[in-house]
Write a structure and sequence with these properties.
Elements lengths: L1 E3 L10 E8 L3 H12 L10 E8 L2 E8 L2 H37 L1
Antiparallel strand pairs: 1-3, 2-4, 3-4
Pfam family, one: Pcc1
Family: Belongs to the CTAG/PCC1 family.
Protein name: KEOPS complex subunit Pcc1
């Protein structure tokens, strides 16, 4: 499993939740993972941090937080980021499909 996340020396957090996102193929999972993994560390703070990992066609985001409010905020943020990455990948596929069709006619 490819893994992007905090360094092992970081302080432990009391609450952890993981989100798993499955895709039709490994290519799409790799695109989403690469899109959101760049945010790891950038949006972490003293109360929460996250890791992103991919195993085949599944992307997993794990949020660790000091309290439940920070956990909820982290889960909401990462869910939105994954959603945006999925929307952009879908839009890119549509543009590519339209371009391919127009070249064939």
């Amino acid at each position: 499993m490819e893994h992007h996340g905090a360094q092992s020396g970081d302080a432990p957090h009391a609450h952890t939740a993981s989100l798993s996102f499955s895709y039709p193929d490994e290519r799409r999972a790799r695109i989403v993972e690469a899109s959101v993994a760049v945010e790891v560390g950038d949006i972490d703070d003293a109360r929460s941090q996250a890791t992103v990992a991919r195993d085949g066609d599944t992307v997993e985001v794990t949020v660790n937080a000091a309290d439940l409010v920070a956990l909820r905020a982290g889960l909401n943020s990462w869910t939105r980021m994954v959603g945006v990455a999925e929307d952009v990948a879908d839009a890119a596929d549509r543009v590519t499909d339209e371009s391919t069709k127009s070249k064939g006619t």
